[in-house]
Specification:
It is a single chain. Helix content is 51%, strand content 10%. It has helices spanning 21-61, 74-86, 93-96, 100-110, 131-151, 167-179, 203-211, 235-253, 256-259, 274-285, 291-294, 299-304, 316-325, 342-350, 356-370; strands at 65-70, 114-118, 156-161, 185-189, 215-219, 264-267, 307-309, 331-332.
Length: 373
């Protein structure tokens, strides 16, 4: 290959020991051309790496909306830690150390352009208090969230908290959250004591949310029945995602999805175990007598029209299962901050090998479309 770089003007034999100015010039020229060639080849390698880096940067530089982002108003935060102390429940260090400044810094590090604020579930807003005290805590939380939305334009949205354990109070808070605070939706738990969201007691609440065509975001918690099961791990690993599945199945079989057609439902953690159990649910309930009432287009069709966030579910296995069940238009980026870092979730998402159009849907387009007011 390098022979082509020799000067054609020199006819000396390569075996000649005679020296001439032509030969020396050619050697020097050859060295220069070799170096130039090597630099060119090396440059192509750098260019290839740069292109890969640019593609990754372009993906990460696109907007990122976090739809699963927890926050802790000071009075609420204090009440939560005291509630855990009374029950000798260890604190999560990430939650204990939460500050607004840390949250914004973490958003900037991860490239999160906007975070939709919501409460984590345990202990929700209850704290085992009477309803008037719960209502007070709910209002405090929502006012604080709305304050952040106002003070940091474009950086935050709000899924307002609701009382839920008292219907009149909850209906009143829905009105306040949407008509006064301008909330993006509401955030509720997957269960309330021994009741899951398809229970008839909650029907008036969902009827009002349906009338408003509201976004309803669910965050799971451990069911009262199962907090002390000895499986060798703590409840967050198994029971928390399973309770999302309980809520989805309960809403499905109670006919709530069919009845409250205008609600836009979001479920956390990739839908819990729904992607894995969808076929099993369909096998046992797909032919029951009232199937046309609870799932007019079939059970899988009901599951496909729900929204699911990616919080702590960006591992290739759950994402493959989720995207096999639902179209990419139904998947939203979520981090579960502060329990799970935002940046690692965003990086994991970008490493799944998804097409850019799909990645953009998950990163920001689906959330933008869903949260339009």
């Amino acid at each position: 290959m390098f022979q082509r770089l020799l000067s054609p003007a020199c006819q000396h034999s390569s075996s000649s020991r005679l020296s001439c100015s032509c030969e020396h010039a050619d050697d020097s020229d050859l060295d220069n051309k070799k170096r130039s060639f090597i630099k060119t080849v090396g440059g192509l390698g750098v260019l290839g790496a740069s292109i890969t880096s640019l593609i990754a940067h372009a993906q990460s530089a696109s907007p990122l909306i976090d739809t699963h982002h927890h926050f802790y108003p000071p009075e609420y935060h204090k009440a939560w830690l005291e509630w855990e102390n009374q029950r000798k429940i260890p604190h999560f260090a990430q939650q204990e150390n939460w500050t607004l400044q840390n949250a914004i810094a973490a958003m900037d590090k991860a490239g999160v352009s906007k975070a939709i604020l919501s409460l984590a579930s345990t202990p929700g807003t209850w704290f085992d208090l009477p309803v008037p005290e719960v209502n007070k805590m709910v209002r405090l939380v929502n006012d604080f969230g709305a304050k952040l939305v106002k003070e940091y334009p474009g950086r935050f949205g709000l899924f307002a908290a609701l009382t839920m354990i008292d219907v009149p109070s909850t209906l009143k808070e829905i009105e306040y959250a949407f008509d006064v605070l301008g909330a993006d939706g509401v955030g509720i738990q997957t269960n309330y004591g021994d009741k899951w969201p398809g229970h008839p007691d909650f029907a008036p609440i969902f009827a009002e949310l349906n009338r408003r065509k509201a976004v309803v975001y669910f965050h799971p918690l451990v069911a009262a029945c199962c907090a002390r099961l000895n499986t060798g791990t703590y409840p967050a690993v198994i029971e928390v995602p399973h309770d999302t599945t309980r809520a989805v199945v309960n809403l499905l079989l109670s006919g709530s999805f069919a009845k409250f057609r205008d609600i836009k439902w979001i479920f956390s953690h990739g839908g819990g175990t729904i992607p894995m159990l969808a076929g099993r649910i369909n096998f046992f309930h797909g032919l029951q007598k009232n199937i046309n009432e609870i799932a007019p287009n079939g059970i899988e069709a009901e599951l496909k029209r729900l929204y699911y966030d990616t919080a702590n579910a960006t591992h290739p296995a759950p994402m493959a299962s989720l995207l096999k069940l639902v179209p990419s238009s139904q998947v939203l980026y979520g981090s579960d901050y502060p329990y799970v870092p935002m940046d690692t979730q965003a990086q994991a998402l970008s490493q799944l090998g998804l097409e850019k159009s799909v990645l953009d849907q998950i990163r920001f387009q689906n959330a933008t479309n869903l949260l339009k007011k």
